[in-house]
Amino acid sequence: MTDTPTNFIRQIIDEDNRTGKHGGKVATRFPPEPNGYLHLGHAKSICLNFGIARDYQGICNLRYDDTNPVKEDEEYVRAIEEDVRWLGFNWSGKYYASDYFDKIYDYAEQLIQLGKAYVDDLTAEEMRQYRGTLTEAGKESPYRSRSVEENLELFRGMRDGKFPDASKVLRAKIDMKSPNINLRDPALYRIRRATHHQTGDKWCIYPMYDYAHPISDMLEGITHSICTLEFEDHRPFYDWVLDALKTPCHPQQIEFSRLNVDYTVMSKRKLLQLVTEKHVQGWDDPRMPTIQGMRRRGITPAALRDFCERVGVTKKDNCIEIALLENCIREDLDSSAMRRMAVLRPLKVVVENYPEGKTEDFELPNHPQKPEMGTRKVTFSRTLFIEQDDFMETPPKGYFRLFPGNEVRLRGAYYVTAKEVIKDASGKVVEVRCTYDPESRGGGTPDNRKVKGTIHWVSETHSIPAEIRLYDRLFSVAEPEAGGVDFLTRMNPNSLEVLKDARVEPSLADVAPETRVQFERQGYFCTDRKDHRAGHPVFNRVVTLRDSWAKGGK
Ligand code: ATP
Ligand code: MG
């Protein structure tokens, strides 16, 4: 067993196992529609379904719900598999709903033979009118009483391409007066001449999702068919299909609430819009809540799994704070990421009393609490870079970093005191002249002199130039979709800042893509999967060290 906390779905499974409802078997599936890239909400569903299979020694299938031929694409299929594996899971079987098109078709003929399905010629508009409303019963279609023979012949005609698109549908014959609109003779098949990415032009009729889904689940021997809450009202139809066909097994559909997260949007349709209208640089833009985006940003699979566990599984609609995900990332990287020094916005510092041409190597720990993670060498010299905002010519009260006359500790090296500044024509400080205390080697002095500030640094000639991409939240308000306002008007204009002149310590000279480090005092960073290479290091900021949005934002 693992430490996964229990939830109402696991309690249902425990009870089913106790009563032997599914013969003690546990089989789940993750059923994405391959019409976009997976996002954080899908990650929750993946962790839930695959996590249950893992913990109950059951199976979890990956199934593409590819009943809609038009919006789907092979590119998405490849990305989905990569994403599931990257999250740390492996499917027991990989299937396409389209694998079952023959069987799904045969079951439709069976329903016709049972008098439980009919071909309807009403137009889509008429059908809408006949359907009724929440308060008003529906009306039966004049085609509802066709004979089994006529229905069979028409349905085969539909399959054989005898009728134009959308001219007929096959419908279940249930109850036009049902208070549940989903039971008012829902459509089972429609005519649609479209090339399908798996079945090509074999079919010109396609089953509806709500009809194909219970059959696909049943054919795979799924025991618990977990989906999101909007399918709750569809469950009676799910059960109707399986009951009508008297199938050998009957999966239990269980609904849970969708994951919503603040400061982002999560529907594939909106994410697609961000991509196609170029508000972001692609599906894997590190600001996107897609799994590809989060991966490229530098978030680890462990942090995502931890997040999915912490948000829990309930039936209540909710909105989770993105700060929770950020904390999961910090916790994960705090323990695993090596510490490094990087100067994002360099300011030159010359240590006047340090001999020209001399260098010294300091061994600094890779992790302050984990000596087993070893050390790395950082070279000190007369000319250094520090962070621009670690120096102020006229500091406010409480500023403990470098200013004229003040002494600070250069992390792991020496104490330095600022003496004077050199400015450019515009009056901007371009260089700080300092002196150092040779007695303070390693960061302390024999007289135990206290300094209040410790700042990071790199040596001018030994550091390497790097591009650093500072990512922030994509939207500037917690609920970008609230109040009927176009979510695009609420994008955070500062969600990406690119720093081209950053300098990083020499130990980062040849790290691989997707290497995560903590830049001391700055945050966690990860080398970019796509653009980082030897000679041109590119670091993405995964997350800052602390939540800078907590006190009313920036
Ligand atoms: P979207 O609305 O973003 O397009 P979807 O539900 O249409 O999402 P599918 O590809 O059909 O996406 O979903 C695959 C599985 O992932 C489904 O079982 C679905 O319930 C689940 N899922 C999708 N979005 C979320 C979410 N926000 N929270 C939890 N589960 C989700
Ligand atoms: Mg969908």
Structure description:
The chain is of the alpha/beta class and 554 residues long. The chain folds into three domains: 8-258, Rossmann fold (3-Layer(aba) Sandwich), CATH 3.40.50; 268-338 and 466-552, Ribosomal Protein L25, Chain P; 342-456, Ribosomal Protein L25, Chain P, CATH 2.40.240. It has helices spanning 8-19, 40-55, 74-86, 101-113, 124-131, 148-159, 209-219, 235-244, 268-276, 291-297, 301-311, 322-336, and strands at residues 27-30, 59-64, 94-96, 117-120, 169-172, 187-191, 205-207, 224-228, 252-256, 338-340, 342-343, 346-351, 360-365, 375-380, 383-387, 407-410, 415-423, 429-437, 454-455, 458-459, 464-471, 496-504, 516-519, 523-527, 538-543. The strands form six sheets. Strands 10-23-24-25-21-22-11 form a seven-stranded mixed β-sheet, covered by helices on one side. Strands 19-16-17-18-12-15-20 form a seven-stranded mixed β-sheet, with no helix packed on it. A four-stranded antiparallel β-sheet has the order 4-5-6-7. Strand 16 (407-410) and strand 17 form a beta hairpin. The model has no long low-confidence stretch (mean pLDDT 95).
